[in-house]
């Protein structure tokens, strides 16, 4: 009897579990176009990456939203490095939050698995206010939009203003070519004291390498690499030469500095310049201050192609709605509030990139309480949007193939441990 | 000849006092080497901005700001949450693993060896393999964003290491005590609670210590299963001070890291004798 009872209990447990799983798999996708304002109610979960200061600002926006709508927003903050680790497990379990923060590099990794709703056609989400170029740069091949953009964070060449003044380093304009940039670094190194390097390695983000490849031709086409192997090899060999010449931070010192902007070689006063996202200018200034150095950070835009054409890859932070969301109307209303509401933009204060609505960029730029580094970031974003960004069709698994491979191979290639040609081939073959 | 022999012996057998001093010196050097990171952590936690030698000098500000925590929760709440989870995990582990260990060590039932081998085999299973299926299961059961996924598994003797540790200990207790108890009318539960548990105190203390350290330091479990910042544990709370894409509170992180070590050190200090006894009697290295 006992054995039979155990078998029945085990079978019942299996049925309950499998029914639940099948139910979650078999549910039909919600239609963003069919939701209405009357449906905005209930609870939604919202996950984002950030630390204390960003969490406080995000919570302020949530409070404003909750005062206006009968919706309870359950915030789920975590830091950037762990955010995607958790999101991957949530995605596998069909339990992603209704409003999921996303960024350009990771978007296609999730969208290609059919996890997100197409936000192009929704009554509750107005994206006509957002820069058209920004929205279009996020569209998939079929025109679908899987992320509503709210923060633009273009990369710049940040530099230490105090060092530039002290050692008489001239700052080039925003239209320097890549060749002029490398020459500038070599000239700066001649003026810098021993122990300070003109640059640190650009291995942490793909923005610089893709902007460089874009200046030489198409980068990706139809989800496949379209750049030439010799161009990528040229990128690696140039940085290797600069390291040999003592212009960039030596390889053995890379691990002295963590990936965070506040602990970077530039923030420690060891590197004069660094390619960093514009929304990191404030963090670098804080890092300089904590090292007892003047917190003055200047910037110049990323170099352009030889013909003067700008090819910036534009990193954009946005909000997506998973297909597993059971309250699409409230999620839409929340995203719309986040992007289009004046009080929300004021409360968030461009903490994770410049607003995608030009009017709010102008408002924050004019507000006396906006910090200097935030104003710089907003100015950069406007300049980059105005000069035209590179509408790169990032392939599916971009983050898990190109970016991971690049980070792994880059240091090896920069230091000469792997030949530039072999490193380029490895990345291309990994993507294939 | 005699003198010559004594000289040779003295060369090969230096005076005990000198040898002892050399050993102590070596141990002291090793101790300095081991404590160096902790000393740096401690000093940095009292330094302005968490940077040793910063112009601001020494300050308690890191502890004040860190204790306030994120989002108004206060770091004290994370300590309470971690303590609750650790306590529930210890109770579950001690109850379930000791019962499972008694079963394997004392009861002769069909398939015992195979089941024991299977249990030991689970030690070889990487945790990453079970992360997603376990998450799917707890999500289906509606237990995500509760403490259940972090505690309930401990009540099913799933920690093979602890069960194995106690099996080894119980096997060292003379079976004649069980037989005497059985003659006096005890069943399995009577033998377990009246004979085995009181004699297994060192092994139970060792298990409790390891379980506490594991629960207190666990990061992945709370990261996946706890969404509400109000329910965060200490490791998740510490992570809130850092973000590679924005501003970090390094001083607060270091100060709260120091405080997060206090319960571990206190637990070890209180249970030190039992833990070392348990380790020495279970054959654990």
Automatic annotation (TrEMBL), chain A:
Top-level taxon: Bacteria
UniProt keyword terms in alphabetical order: Signal
Signal peptide: 1-23
A Pfam match: SBP_bac_8
UniProt xrefs under Gene3D superfamilies: Periplasmic binding protein-like II
Keyword Signal (UniProt): yes
Annotated coiled-coil segments of the chain: none
InterPro entries: Bact_solute-bd_prot1, SBP
Designated name of the protein: Sugar ABC transporter substrate-binding protein
Organism the protein comes from: Acrocarpospora macrocephala
Lineage, top ranks: Bacteria, Bacillati, Actinomycetota, Actinomycetes, Streptosporangiales
UniProtKB/TrEMBL annotation, chain B:
Keywords: Cell membrane, Membrane, Transmembrane, Transmembrane helix, Transport
ABC transmembrane type-1 domain sequence ranges: 79-271
Gene Ontology CC annotation, any one: plasma membrane
TM region(s), chain numbering: 25-46, 78-102, 114-135, 147-170, 191-216, 251-271
Subcellular location: Cell membrane
Keyword Zinc-finger set for record: no
Gene3D superfamilies, alphabetized: MetI-like
Pfam family, one: BPD_transp_1
GO BP terms, alphabetized: transmembrane transport
Mode of membrane association: Multi-pass membrane protein
Record has Disulfide bond as a keyword: no
Location (main, coarse): membrane
The family this protein is said to belong to: Belongs to the binding-protein-dependent transport system permease family.
Protein name per Swiss-Prot or TrEMBL: Sugar ABC transporter permease
């Amino acid at each position: 009897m006992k054995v039979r009872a155990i078998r029945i209990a085990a079978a019942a447990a299996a049925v309950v579990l499998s029914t639940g799983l099948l139910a979650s798999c078999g549910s039909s996708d919600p239609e963003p176009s069919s939701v209405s304002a009357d449906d905005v109610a209930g609870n939604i979960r919202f996950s984002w990456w950030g630390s204390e200061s960003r969490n406080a600002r995000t919570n302020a926006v949530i409070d404003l939203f909750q005062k206006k709508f009968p919706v309870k927003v359950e915030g789920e903050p975590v830091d950037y490095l762990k955010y995607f680790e958790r999101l991957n497990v949530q995605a596998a379990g069909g339990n992603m939050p209704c409003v999921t923060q996303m960024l350009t590099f990771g978007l296609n990794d999730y969208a290609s698995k059919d996890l997100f709703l197409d936000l192009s056609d929704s009554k509750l989400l107005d994206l006509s206010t957002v820069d058209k170029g920004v929205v279009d740069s996020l569209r998939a091949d079929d025109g679908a939009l899987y992320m509503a953009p709210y923060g633009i964070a273009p990369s710049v060449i940040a530099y230490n203003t105090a060092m530039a003044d002290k050692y008489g380093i001239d700052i080039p304009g925003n239209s320097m070519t890549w060749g002029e940039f490398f020459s500038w670094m070599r000239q700066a190194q001649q003026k810098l004291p021993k122990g300070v390097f003109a640059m640190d390695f650009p291995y942490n983000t793909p923005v610089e390498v893709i902007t460089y490849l874009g200046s030489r031709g198409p980068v990706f086409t139809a989800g496949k690499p379209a750049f030439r192997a010799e161009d990528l090899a040229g990128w690696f060999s140039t940085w290797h030469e600069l390291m040999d010449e003592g212009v960039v931070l030596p390889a053995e010192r890379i691990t002295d500095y963590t990936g965070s902007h506040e602990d970077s070689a530039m923030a420690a006063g060891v590197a004069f310049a660094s390619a960093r996202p514009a929304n990191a200018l404030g963090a670098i200034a804080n890092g300089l201050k904590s090292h007892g150095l003047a917190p003055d950070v200047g910037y110049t835009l990323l170099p352009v192609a030889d013909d003067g054409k700008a090819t910036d890859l534009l990193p954009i932070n946005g909000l997506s709605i998973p297909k597993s969301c059971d309250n699409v109307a409230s999620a839409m209303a929340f995203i719309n509030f986040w992007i289009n509401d004046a009080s929300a933009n004021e409360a968030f204060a461009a903490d994770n990139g410049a607003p995608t609505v030009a009017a709010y960029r102008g408002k924050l730029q004019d507000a006396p309480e906006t910090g200097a580094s935030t104003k710089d970031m907003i100015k950069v974003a406007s300049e980059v949007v105005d000069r035209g960004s590179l509408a790169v069709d990032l392939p599916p698994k971009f983050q898990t193939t190109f970016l991971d491979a690049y980070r792994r191979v880059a240091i090896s290639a920069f230091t000469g441990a792997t030949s530039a040609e072999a490193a380029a081939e490895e990345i291309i073959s990994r993507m294939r | 000849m005699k003198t010559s022999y004594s000289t040779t012996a003295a060369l090969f057998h230096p005076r005990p006092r000198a040898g002892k001093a050399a050993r102590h010196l070596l141990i002291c050097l090793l101790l300095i080497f081991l404590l160096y990171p902790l000393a740096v952590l401690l000093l940095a936690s009292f330094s302005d901005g968490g940077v040793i030698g910063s112009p601001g000098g020494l300050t308690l500000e890191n502890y004040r700001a860190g204790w306030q925590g994120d989002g108004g929760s206060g770091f004290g709440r994370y300590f309470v949450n971690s303590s609750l989870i650790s306590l529930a995990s210890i109770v579950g582990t001690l109850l379930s693993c000791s019962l499972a260990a008694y079963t394997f060590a004392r009861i002769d039932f069909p398939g015992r060896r195979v089941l024991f081998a299977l249990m030991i085999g689970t030690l070889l299973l990487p945790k990453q393999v079970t992360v997603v299926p376990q998450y799917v299961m707890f999500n289906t059961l509606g237990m995500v964003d509760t403490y259940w996924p972090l505690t309930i598994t401990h009540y099913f003797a799933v920690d093979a290491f602890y069960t194995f540790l106690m099996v080894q200990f119980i096997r060292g207790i003379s079976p004649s005590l069980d037989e005497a108890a059985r003659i006096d009318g005890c069943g399995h539960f009577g033998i377990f609670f009246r004979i085995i548990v009181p004699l297994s105190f060192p092994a139970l203390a060792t298990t409790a210590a390891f379980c506490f350290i594991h629960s207190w330091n666990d990061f992945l479990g709370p990261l996946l299963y706890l969404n509400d910042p109000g329910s965060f544990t200490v490791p998740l709370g510490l992570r809130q001070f850092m973000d590679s894409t924005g501003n970090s509170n390094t001083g607060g992180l270091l100060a709260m890291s120091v405080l997060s070590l206090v319960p571990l050190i206190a637990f070890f200090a209180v249970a030190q004798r039992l833990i070392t006894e348990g380790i020495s009697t279970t054959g654990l290295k």
